């Protein structure tokens, strides 16, 4: 992946904050859960906090070009989209020492003249309940595993950065010529195996990820990179493949399918690698090790992953339990001021989109079962009027998960996914933009929300109260039930216009599940 090059090194001074303190986010004081390890905080980590031990069973973690100018605001993006985790690229060699993209040393980190600071952003994000993974390598520049020839020194260099930044997740982005550089591959594997052994003795949790190139048919040289890690005893948490730039133009609307094909190919490869090493892993175990990172919008092969294809990948990932969805990059999650363009930009997606639209879509991939926040005691939303029909009143400072119901202004809503601070009656252009579904208007008995007067059932037949006739013009979300041809189906994810009884080869190809 391509990192922005600066014309000159920015000499701004980083503003190092004092000890971490809670901040206000939407009127609620929150603070990230920190791991309980001893004697690990250096000067930097004391100021920016310690990472989370677990990010959850499924996670959206987009890449950030950490060396872009000005410094990209992780906290603003998190507040706008709900994205909690980011991968920061890239740490590379500079004259035998680690650096951010060769432009900034590790102690200061990237800064800008406007007062922006990567370290401040990491601190703020962690206080909001989020975290970062630092990525070593990338397409440009020289990886530390190549420049530092001594395995123990390389191990110590990795360890210092991990401790300095309070990292519990690290990534090694190995691409281009470096996927065939035998010496650096072996040296990295040996160093990581030693590092994991040391950290385990210190009771310090660390997930190690590799990011590797891929084709829809699977990894090429990346297979040997993974085999080297397994051979040397590296406990890989996952392999995140770059599902982009496949080398040729493909028909529009098919990139989502190719991303999925790539993931399935990598699943077969990883299962084979571990089987050959006599390490037993189930299909589910392997899916928990896989991540995919497409380019949001236009890539360098002229192909586009648009908003609908992002949703397709998300839905597939949820179906199989794939661990991670990434994106290159949040810096590109904008529309060009000229609208749609025919060239790749590091600052926009080259397609028509709302600001941060990909982040708003893909942040819904977070399972939210591995992170924890400390919140103020619940307080009822002003002017709400309290409980309705036994359903508790909505509270702005409380987090809700899918299926939870609240009352708000005389109506009852149900959460479609994890949410906090989103008003149930907020006006949106599209139903997927709100985490709330109106299920009952107590003030208007008999009204059936989410139904249109001119709805056309797909088929005649008897229905139950909770499974109305399927309507091809209606949007359905995960958990909605419909009756079609006398059978009851339940939506597995958002869908519209997909017939419930469509014949498919694989269960993940249909958004419907037969339940009765």
TrEMBL record:
Q: What SMART domains does the record point to?
A: ChtBD3 (SM00495)
- Keywords from the named record: Hydrolase
* Pfam name, any one: CBM_5_12
A single Gene Ontology CC annotation of this entry is:
extracellular region
Biological process (GO) annotations held by this record are:
carbohydrate metabolic process
Cross-referenced InterPro entries, in alphabetical order? CBM5/12, CBM_sf_5/12, GH, GH18_Chitinase, Glyco_hydro18_cat
* An MF annotation (GO) of this entry: hydrolase activity, hydrolyzing O-glycosyl compounds
Q: Decide whether keyword Hydrolase is in the record.
A: yes
Q: Where is each GH18 domain found? A: 58-354
Residue ranges annotated as compositionally biased, kind Basic and acidic residues, are 438-459
Q: Region Disordered: which residues?
A: 369-391, 437-474
The UniProt entry, under Gene3D superfamilies, shows:
Carbohydrate-binding module superfamily 5/12, Glycosidases
Which PANTHER family is this protein grouped with?
Answer: BIFUNCTIONAL CHITINASE/LYSOZYME-RELATED, GH18 DOMAIN-CONTAINING PROTEIN-RELATED
- Protein name stated in the entry: Glycosyl hydrolase
Q: Which organism is it from?
A: Clostridium senegalense
Taxonomy of the source species: Bacteria, Bacillati, Bacillota, Clostridia, Eubacteriales
């Amino acid at each position: 992946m391509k990192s922005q090059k600066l014309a000159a090194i920015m000499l701004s001074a980083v503003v190092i904050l004092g000890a971490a303190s809670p901040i206000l986010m939407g009127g609620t004081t929150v603070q990230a859960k920190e791991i309980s390890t001893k004697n690990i905080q250096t000067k930097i980590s004391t100021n920016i906090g310690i990472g989370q031990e677990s990010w959850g069973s499924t996670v959206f973690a987009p890449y950030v070009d950490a060396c872009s100018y000005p410094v990209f605001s992780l906290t603003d993006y998190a507040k706008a989209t709900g994205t909690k985790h980011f991968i920061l690229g890239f740490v590379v060699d500079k004259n035998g020492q680690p650096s951010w993209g060769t432009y900034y040393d590790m102690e200061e980190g990237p800064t800008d003249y406007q007062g922006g600071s990567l370290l401040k952003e990491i601190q703020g994000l962690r206080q909001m309940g989020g975290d970062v993974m630092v990525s070593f390598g990338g397409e440009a520049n020289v990886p530390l595993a190549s420049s530092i020839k001594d395995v123990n020194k390389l191990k110590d260099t990795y360890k210092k950065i991990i401790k300095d930044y309070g990292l519990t997740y690290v990534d090694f982005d190995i691409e281009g010529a470096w996927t065939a550089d035998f010496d650096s591959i072996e040296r990295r594997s040996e160093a990581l195996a030693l590092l994991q052994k040391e950290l385990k003795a210190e009771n310090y949790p660390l997930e190690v990820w590799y990011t590797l190139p891929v084709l829809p048919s699977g990894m090429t040289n990346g297979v040997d990179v993974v085999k080297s890690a397994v051979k040397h005893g590296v406990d890989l948490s996952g392999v995140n493949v770059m599902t982009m730039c496949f080398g040729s133009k493909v028909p529009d609307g098919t990139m989502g399918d190719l991303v999925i094909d790539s993931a399935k190919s990598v699943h077969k490869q990883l299962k084979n690698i571990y089987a050959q090493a006599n390490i037993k892993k189930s299909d589910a175990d392997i899916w928990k090790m896989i991540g995919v990172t497409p380019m949001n919008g236009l890539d360098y092969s002229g192909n586009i992953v648009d908003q609908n294809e992002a949703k397709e990948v998300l839905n597939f990932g949820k179906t199989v339990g794939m661990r991670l969805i990434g994106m290159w990059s949040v810096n590109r999650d904008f529309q060009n001021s000229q609208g749609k363009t025919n060239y790749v930009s590091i600052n926009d997606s080259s397609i028509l989109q709302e600001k941060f639209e990909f982040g708003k879509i893909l942040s819904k991939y977070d399972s939210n079962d591995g992170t924890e926040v400390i919140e103020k005691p619940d307080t009822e939303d002003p002017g709400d009027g309290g409980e309705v029909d036994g359903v508790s009143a909505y509270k702005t400072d409380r987090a809700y998960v899918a299926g939870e119901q609240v009352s708000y202004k005389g109506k009852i809503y149900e959460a479609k996914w994890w949410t906090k601070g989103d008003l149930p009656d907020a006006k949106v252009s599209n139903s997927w933009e709100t985490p709330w579904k109106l299920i009952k208007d107590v003030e208007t008995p008999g009204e059936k929300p989410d139904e249109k007067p001119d709805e056309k059932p797909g088929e005649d037949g008897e229905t139950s109260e909770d499974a109305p006739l399927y309507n091809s013009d209606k949007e359905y979300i995960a958990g909605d039930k419909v009756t079609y041809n006398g059978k009851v189906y339940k939506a597995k994810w958002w869908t519209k216009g997909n017939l419930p009884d469509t014949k498919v080869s694989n269960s993940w190809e249909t958004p419907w599940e037969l339940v009765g």
